[in-house]
Amino acid sequence: MKRHLSLALLVAVSAAGVSACNPVLRSHGYRYTVTEEPNIVPAEDTRDTVLARLGNPSTTGTFEEDTWYYISSTRESLAYLRPATRDRRIIAVSFDDAGTVATVNEYSLQDGRIVAYADRETPTRGRELSFLEQLLGNVGRLPSEQFGGEQNLPGGAGGPRRDQ
Question: Residues annotated as region Disordered (predicted)?
Fold first, then answer.
């Protein structure tokens, strides 16, 4: 009887542990169902018809303002791990000067590229000093010119010194 109780407790704890690892899916942007798939026809549709079908774009082109981007993505989070993008769909609609659709391109996650971000740390020249070297580095290194020399000191106003 005690063995069955411990076995049931072990199964319950294992089930609770496994269910806690279910991924959490988050959708960003508007997701179309297959029956609602918007058809945008180049040379027929205009800005107004695209706006009526798809709504406001997620973003517009930085340098080409005549391109609208509709972005949707699904991200998966699992416990403490960094979220991963499972699916991405980008519809790029370009317009000509008259406001008519010129091209429609669709991009997926496979079309993306990995970009290496800067580590936001400015490299410095010279050697790295430890904390103790920084703290005790100038002990015993006072400039002799400071005590009556005629030379300009660093950080001073420059130019010749005047005798007072």
Answer: 142-164
pLDDT in tens, the chain (164 residues): 777 777 777 777 676 666 566 788 888 887 776 566 678 889 999 999 999 888 889 899 888 889 999 988 889 888 788 888 888 888 899 999 999 999 999 888 888 887 777 777 776 776 777 888 877 877 777 666 555 555 555 555 555 655 65
Report the 3 state secondary structure along the chain. Answer: CHHHHHHHHHHHHHHHHHHCCCCEEEEECCCCCHHHCCCCCCCCCEHHHHHHHHCCCCEECCCCCCEEEEEEEEEEECCCCCCEEEEEEEEEEEECCCCEEEEEEEEEHHHCCCCCCCCCCCCCCCCCCCHHHHHHCCCCCCCHHHCCCCCCCCCCCCCCCCCC
